[in-house]
User: Which sequence fits this backbone?
């Protein structure tokens, strides 16, 4: 049976040979006056990418490529963990080592990165804490990326290890709502990639609303809806929570504002939008609608907060994949 370990790129090695190969991998006879590749490999962190059994091979390749792109900008050692359902002795014999150097306009703009790709038994609770630690760069922070690892297995097997990580990231558009119910030992270290992707959206909405007084935004507000196209439910849930937090901050201490309903729901099948945000007010004299069109960067804002109606377009450029991961890991 083909596993993710078979699919991902790299040179097959026995585990006992990995450390020796790593120690000599970047050493070479560089031309006189030129720096060796090892001079361009200065890791800042460890990135552990843990796949779950349900990960399709093409999706695993896409996520792995994103990690490699990230390493070109933020030098790190990647440890990619590929699940094996029925573990046997051969699992602990084979691994893969991936390495590449990327050269810019000049050799001084070279970046060298490496990834260790290992199989792991999905039922072994101590594997991460005992085995993976051997392959990490010592004295550097560990960031952990979970991809299609079931929430129940995290609770049962992996929390002791994850509590040692600097940051844990996942994508709620892929994992669904189960991760939100997980009893993380340090919830402040857990970040959703769907929230990170919303950075341009939060900036778009925030910059527009910042021109109005907080009282004008919350007075009479009855309902906040975030509507989403298929596949964007994670972004919608995060965007709704962000709005609720921001509106809470608009309230003055000691005030008891009217109850506001916050709701995320699917868009109508005929809609040409990817995301919509609508605020509804008592009396219908005020309104706010933000709509992001599908497959383009176009946004439309329609609003009236009591000082006249506005209707204008905006341009919201999607965040790049590397910046999305950096936003989730570092901010």
Assistant:
């Amino acid at each position: 049976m083909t596993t993710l370990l078979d699919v991902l790129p790299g040179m097959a090695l026995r585990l006992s040979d990995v450390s020796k190969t790593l120690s000599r991998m970047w050493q070479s006879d560089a031309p006189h006056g030129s720096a060796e590749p090892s001079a361009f490999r200065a890791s800042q962190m460890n990135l552990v990418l843990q796949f779950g059994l349900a990960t399709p091979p093409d999706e695993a390749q896409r996520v792995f490529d994103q990690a490699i792109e990230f390493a070109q900008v933020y030098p790190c050692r990647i440890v990619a963990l590929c699940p094996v359902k029925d573990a046997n002795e051969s699992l602990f014999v084979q691994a893969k080592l991936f390495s590449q150097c990327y050269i810019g306009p000049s050799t001084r703009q070279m970046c060298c990165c490496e990834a260790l790709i290992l199989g792991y038994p999905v039922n072994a609770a101590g594997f991460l804490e005992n085995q993976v630690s051997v392959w990490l760069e010592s004295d550097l922070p560990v960031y952990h990326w979970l991809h299609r690892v079931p929430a129940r297995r995290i609770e049962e097997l992996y929390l002791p290890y994850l509590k040692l990580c600097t940051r844990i990231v996942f994508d709620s558009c892929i994992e669904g709502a189960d991760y939100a119910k997980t009893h993380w030992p340090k919830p402040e270290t857990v970040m959703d990639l769907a929230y990170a992707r919303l950075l341009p959206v939060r900036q778009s909405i925030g910059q527009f609303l910042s021109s109005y007084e907080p009282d004008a935004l919350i007075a009479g507000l009855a309902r906040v809806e975030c509507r989403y196209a298929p596949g964007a439910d994670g972004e919608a849930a995060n965007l709704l929570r962000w709005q609720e937090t921001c509106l809470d901050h608009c309230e003055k201490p000691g005030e008891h504002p009217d109850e506001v309903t916050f709701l995320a729901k699917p868009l109508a099948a005929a809609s040409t939008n990817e995301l919509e945000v609508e605020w509804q007010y008592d009396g219908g004299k005020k309104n706010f609608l933000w709509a992001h069109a599908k497959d383009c960067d176009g946004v439309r804002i329609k609003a009236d907060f009591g000082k006249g109606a506005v209707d204008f377009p905006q341009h919201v450029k999607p965040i790049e994949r590397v910046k999305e991961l950096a936003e989730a890991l570092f901010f």
